[in-house]
Design a protein that fits this description.
With 402 residues, the protein is an all-alpha fold. Helix 4 runs antiparallel to helix 7, helix 6 runs antiparallel to helix 7 and helix 10 runs parallel beside helix 15. The C terminus is likely disordered.
Amino acid sequence: MSALSNSKRYYTLVGTILCQFALGSVYTWSLFNEGLSHKLSQPLSQVAFTFGLLSLGLAVASSLSGRMQEKFGLRAVAITAGLALGLGLYLTSTATNLTMLYIYGGILVGAADGTGYLLTLSNCVKWFPERKGLASAFSIGAYGLGSLGFKYLNLALLNRFGMESAFGIWAIVALVLIVGGAFLISEAPQPALGNARARAAAGDYTLAEAVRQPKYWMLALMFLTVCMSGLYLIGVAKDVGERYVGLSTSVAADTVAIVAAANLLGRLVLGVLSDKIPRIQILSIALACALAGMLLLLFVPLNEYSFYVAVACVAFSFGGTITVYPGLVSDFFGLTNLARNYGLIYLGFGIGSVIGSIVSSALGGFLPTFYLSLVLLVVSLLCSVSLWPSHSHGSKPVAAAH
């Protein structure tokens, strides 16, 4: 790699980290629910539904981001995503009814966040083909740290300026970080590949070619499973601690810190290891870890510490899986069409987050979703083992060498 290209990829890494840090700020949304509920005179549950729409919009936009990049270019789309996120956050502060809140805070913010997230992430991974796991760990780690950093910023803004002004300042900070980061990002060079046979020989598949293979849908099932179990438990961890385990409110609240720490640790540890061990085997470790957590929740008498361990196992698995997956998908289907190939699988993030809540609401309580997660985790673990390379050689599975 030339000195110029080497410089471009490290500028791209810095720009991606800035973008991802700002995009991760949407996970502080719950800080604003109570204020929005009071302002709109609506039940908290209906206001909180905004974040469900945001997650769904994020996943759908992520699946379409590859097409937008092809049509308009990465930098233009990333800048537009930053502007749209800032606009969505500002307009949310002006919402006077639930419909406006759902459109501005749910659909617009979610779509902007999802577009910027997957686009910048997949481009960064392409710049580091020999360190895909490390590039993912830096990028997605920044996304996770964004939720932590903006938690303190937004809390301070809420306490000092009130909700409307806090939304406005949040919008400006996020916009500046994303647009500034986008100007540092260069689009990764695309290999010149010809017909389908040439692409397959190089390990590169279009989305149309990838979806015709059973292993693509196995990867999609595994991703959905981890997202469903992880997002559901992370979202209700405090409530599970209080109502299911019988912990005090203060002790149960500590679960939030446990989740954040385990999530970040999973991203860093499994992301780094995935450059040394075949990524499909790393995914099996993540699935086994989540399975252990679910078994603890369902079949072991829980106290404060065993509950913390169970939740930490699931959060560790979720964080690690999110980090490893871009590189894993590229192992099987190549880097050229990563945004599209991973984008469709990433729909499992939004679908999984909705399924967990629907099952819980329809069947009553936490346990039905936990049991469904347990079954899917067993199936997914078996699927992952079936995709192991017959001979370990680097991080690339035999399935990717055609």
